[in-house]
Amino acid sequence: MNTTLRSCLFFALMLLLGTKNCAAQNLDIHFNGFGFMDNREYRAFEDRSHTYSGARVALDLGVNLDSVNHFRFGVNGIHEFGANPFFLKADPVIYYNFTGKKGWTFDIGSFPREGLITDYPIALLNDTLLYYRPNIQGLLTSYQSPWGKETIWIDWVSRQTQTDREQFIFGASGKYLPNPTGPFFLSHYFMLLHDAGAGILLPNDYIRDNGGGQLRVGLDFSHKTFLDSLTIEAGGMISLERERGITGLQTPKGFVAELFLNHKRFGLRDNFYAGQGHHLTYGDYFYSKKMYNRLDIIYTPFIYNNIRGSFILSLHQSPGNLGDSQQAFRLTYDIGRKNLVRFKD
After folding, report:
1. Does the bond joining 85 to the residue before it have cis omega, within 30 degrees of 0?
2. Contact 345/23 with Cβ under 8 angstroms?
3. pLDDT tens digits, 199-231
4. How far apart are CA 33 and CA 308, in angstroms?
5. Contact 128, 122 (CB under 8 A)
6. Which of 56, 203, 243, 298 is the most exposed place for a label (fewest CB within 10 A)?
């Protein structure tokens, strides 16, 4: 266990031991995680034709000062099957959470990205981030109302030292409903990576800006047909790519469309792209192609309370490579927050 993690857990323990002298209402615990087996057969990108397999577990304790102010302390660890040592990496979980009564939420610290920005298109933020970078390290705030939701965030990837680069990602996403009971919606997603050099500059090393965005219009007919979910979306995508002092701002553009339907244990998701190729550091590499289609066939045989297990067959079609595929199984579980001790003021 590294020094930073030991310090975080020690600080959490000291705070928890002193809780009775605080105005805390209760102390709770939260346990969740997921297992994954993800095999990728890509002729289009043979260097990314890997099998990802492992399990993540997260455990944290929460000090709830009242109904809106919360502190969380814990750890999120990953084990890759067959790896040694057992835990490849253990990420500390330590953050403050504010949950306002008028739709506002605010987080600062190292907190799980799951449920906060995991709705981003994988063209902008690829799906392996949930395996290997489960936490946001920074700040996030969101506001939700019957007319939609808006989220703004910053994730610090690397702090600058003499040898480490300065890297952070910031972004914004949202969904707007002109009529809360109608099917029409407008959604947007944006992220930008700022990648600067280390304290000791290397020759031919320049600041990079790399990011992109999507603007979509869609219709949501979920629960309005025999299907549990049915959404149709289409819109545009743009990326912003620049190496300062070397290239000007490059802005590739294209068209995106998505169809998702689900009925009981079966689902289909189809994503289509056509346009100029993008080169996003944290995006899916298939969007560097000028045309691309991904079809996900989803079967979920395991559904029990907060346990969900799905088989996913993904078929990737791009020019010259129509047979690329991906076979995955993912099991997620979450016991929710459970009260341990309730305190008097």
Report:
1. yes
2. yes
3. 888 887 888 999 999 999 999 999 899 999 999
4. 11
5. no
6. 203
Return the H-helix or E-strand segment holding 11.
helix 3-17
Q: Which residue in 168, 155, 152, 157 sits closest to 106, CA to CA?
A: 152
How many DSSP H helices and E strands does the chain contain? 2, 16
Burial 84-108, CB ≥16 within 10 A → b, else e: eeeeeeebbbbbebeeeeeeebebe
Strand, helix or coil for residue 26: strand
Can you tell me the distance from the alpha carbon of 123 to that of 38, in angstroms, rounded to the nearest whole number? Answer: 18
Q: How far apart are CA 158 and CA 168, in angstroms?
A: 7
Amino acid in position 126: N
CB 109 within 8 A of CB 95: yes
Partnered with residue 92 across adjacent β-strands are: 75
Q: Dump pLDDT digits (tens) for 128-140.
A: 999 999 999 999 9
**Strand-pair category, 51-64 with 26-41:** antiparallel
What are the structure tokens assigned to 336, written together?
A: 């929710």
Q: Kindly tell me the sign of the dihedral angle through the C-alpha atoms of 109, 111, 117, 123.
A: positive
Q: How far apart, in Å, are the Cα atoms of 231 and each of 120, 253, 254, 264?
A: 16, 23, 21, 15
